[in-house]
Amino acid sequence: MRRYLFLLAAALALSMGTLAAGHLWVNGAREKMDIQETVQMGDPAAAAGLSVACRTWDRDGHLLWDTTFTPGRTEGAETVFRLSVEEESEPLQWSDSVSLLQAGDDFSVIDIINMPSMGVHRQELLLRPLQDVAARTAAGETRTETVRLSDYYGHYPFVLDSNSGEYPNSSFSVSSEEYTWLGEYIHVKVDETMVREVTVEKNGAGQVLSAAMSRREGDSAGELRSSGVVTKQGIFLVAESVDDSGKPDGRLECRDGPGVHLIPSRSDNRVELLSPRLFYPTGDAHALLLAATPDESELLLYACEDGKLVLTSAFMAGTAADWDTIPPPACIDTSERPSPWCLAEITQWIFCRGDEV
Q1: What digits encode the pLDDT tens for the residues 165-183?
Q2: What is the pLDDT, as a whole number, of residue 60?
Q3: Are 290 and 225 contacting, i.e. CB atoms less than 8 angstroms apart?
Q4: Residue 52, Cβ neighbours under 10 Å: how many?
Q5: Are 214 and 233 in contact (CB under 8 A)?
Q6: Mean pLDDT throughout 143-170?
Q7: DSSP states along 103-137
């Protein structure tokens, strides 16, 4: 009997020791975070003095790691582990956005019972050619026609979208078809030679079942590129039209000329949609990105001019500082929109030099 008790006690002690050792072994590595740094562009020395903080957690949100490290010195990363009884999740990161969206001319739609009313809800599509072809399509027929877009549109319809967490009254989506002032202020020309293929299918009762518009092989389309910020003063916007290769094609024209445009806010923080105006002219510069300082005192306009990257700091009061011309870094293809990381690196470099921008 004593032997069994002794063996039981030894097994219990061994189990407790194993559990304790396992706990110490696992728990000892709980704050060990290995970080491997890969430099994709730019010079890591430009990040001197900066630190990066990030949080990692398991799927259930109970195991959390807070890590801080310095770019270029990842071996010195510091991690703090925390066990949370309650489930935690990543906080919502709201990013304001402003964009112009050119109406689509290559799409298909299904189960359209009432084609005319659809135009009210699908303003991002070029529906007039579909409605025209549908009017000539007999019940039970599938009809395909090649149409010229300029027969239906003098200018491309487009949608202006604005979303803001800080200024919710400045969040909206409006169409140039619905708000004619928008189409009068901004024009996106339709090439008179541009054609599209339209196909409409109807059932036996004459209802439209499906419709599609497509480009022929080799046809170009182009798109709108835009950048904007939402502030207390209003919505600031830069935009241009580009071809399929991303080169500016000159189809977009503004009543007041190219530049940074302002849709001002009223005293109740609602934007005055009927009063857009030119805030800062850019001339022939190729606008890339528009940003604002955290205190909203200045706008930062990144543009390409004569093959050089140019940063302009424009004060919200309406006066702009001198241009600061910067040779484009190796990471910048001035024919395309540079990445936010690269632009952030350039901005830091400018202000760290102590220059007035």
Answers
A1: 888 888 888 888 778 888 8
A2: 72
A3: no
A4: 13
A5: no
A6: 89
A7: PBSSEEEE--S-HHHHHHH-TTB--HHHHHHHHTP
Residue in 60, 129, 113, 119 with CA at minimum distance from that of residue 88: 60
Whether pLDDT at 242 is above 60: yes
CA distance 122 to 140: 25
Of the candidates 286, 353, 290, the residue with the CA atom closest to the CA atom of residue 316: 290
Residues, the chain: 357
Amino acid at 317: A
Q: Band of the pLDDT at 121, cuts 50, 70, 90?
A: very low
The pLDDT of residue 282 is above 50: yes
List the structure tokens of 232: 């207390």
Phi, psi at 214, each rounded to 5°: -140, 155
Burial group, residue 243, by CB count within 10 angstroms (0-12, 13-18, 19+): middle
Return d(Cα 37, Cα 73) in angstroms, integer. Answer: 9
At position 266, the amino acid (one-letter code) is: R
Q: What's the rounded Cα separation, in Å, for the pair 202 and 354?
A: 68
Q: Which residues lie below 8 Å from residue 32, measured CB to CB, with a gap of 6+?
A: 79
